[in-house]
């Protein structure tokens, strides 16, 4: 199976690659259109701000390439946020694959960014969360989030509920870092790779 991690220029690609390798796969880091489009599974990782990431994706001509993908794609952290239609972080348009915005979190008196372990509640029976107990803990680092919407497949709460995982057609996204989330994260990556 061809597993590709998209070389977005705005992510810690090594940690995702290592987590995938631990599951017995040999991922390739690339932004070559032929390699990306030929892949069976594609990871879209991202860290940093949405506006800076969209600028890099535009410079690397990756926006039409991502939108052309028909295989399962998993956006991680900022990679998930980029699937939305817009982000308040830098007031920027994002990929527009999911018809929902990314908003600054309102966490009451809790510190921002939301950083650390939090429990995630998936939709019953969703394949991405197969073998993961309801309320399992995953590792988050973010100050912006997608509100719960029609594409939400799991939510979490930090001050208020937010989307922890999302699906629109062949595009999946997780707000947390599965590669830093122990056994639950490894199981989620395995589920995605075995879809």
UniProtKB/TrEMBL annotation:
EC number(s) reported in the record: 4.3.2.10, 3.5.1.2
Name under which the protein is recorded: Imidazole glycerol phosphate synthase subunit HisH
Stretches assigned to the Glutamine amidotransferase domain: 5-193
Active site (record annotation): 77 (nucleophile), 177, 179
Species whose genome carries this gene: Limnobaculum allomyrinae
Highest taxon, organism lineage: Bacteria
Keyword annotations of the record: Amino-acid biosynthesis, Cytoplasm, Glutamine amidotransferase, Histidine biosynthesis, Hydrolase, Lyase
Pathways per UniProt: Amino-acid biosynthesis; L-histidine biosynthesis; L-histidine from 5-phospho-alpha-D-ribose 1-diphosphate: step 5/9
Reactions this protein catalyses: L-glutamine + H2O = L-glutamate + NH4(+); 5-[(5-phospho-1-deoxy-D-ribulos-1-ylimino)methylamino]-1-(5-phospho-beta-D-ribosyl)imidazole-4-carboxamide + L-glutamine = D-erythro-1-(imidazol-4-yl)glycerol 3-phosphate + 5-amino-1-(5-phospho-beta-D-ribosyl)imidazole-4-carboxamide + L-glutamate + H(+)
Subcellular location: Cytoplasm
Function summary: IGPS catalyzes the conversion of PRFAR and glutamine to IGP, AICAR and glutamate. The HisH subunit catalyzes the hydrolysis of glutamine to glutamate and ammonia as part of the synthesis of IGP and AICAR. The resulting ammonia molecule is channeled to the active site of HisF.
Record note on quaternary structure: Heterodimer of HisH and HisF.
Alphabetical list of InterPro entries matching this protein: GATASE (IPR017926), Imidazole-glycPsynth_HisH (IPR010139)
Stored Pfam families: GATase (PF00117)
């Amino acid at each position: 199976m061809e597993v590709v991690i998209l070389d977005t220029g705005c992510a810690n690609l090594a940690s995702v690659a290592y987590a995938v390798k631990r599951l017995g796969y040999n991922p390739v880091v690339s932004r070559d259109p032929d390699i990306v489009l030929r892949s069976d599974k594609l990871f879209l990782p991202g860290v940093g701000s949405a506006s800076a990431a969209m600028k890099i994706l535009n410079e690397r001509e990756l926006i039409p390439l991502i939108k052309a993908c028909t295989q399962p794609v998993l956006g991680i952290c900022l990679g998930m946020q980029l699937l939305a239609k817009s982000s308040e972080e830098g007031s920027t348009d994002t990929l527009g694959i999911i018809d929902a915005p990314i908003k600054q979190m309102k966490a009451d008196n809790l510190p921002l960014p939301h950083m650390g372990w939090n429990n995630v509640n998936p939709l019953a029976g969703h394949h991405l969360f197969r073998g993961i107990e309801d309320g399992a803990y995953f590792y988050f680092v973010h100050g912006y989030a997608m509100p719960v919407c029609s594409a939400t497949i799991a939510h979490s709460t930090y001050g208020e509920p937010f989307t922890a995982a999302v699906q629109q057609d062949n595009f999946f996204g997780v707000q947390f870092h599965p590669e830093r989330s122990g056994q639950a994260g490894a199981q989620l990556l395995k589920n995605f790779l075995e879809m």
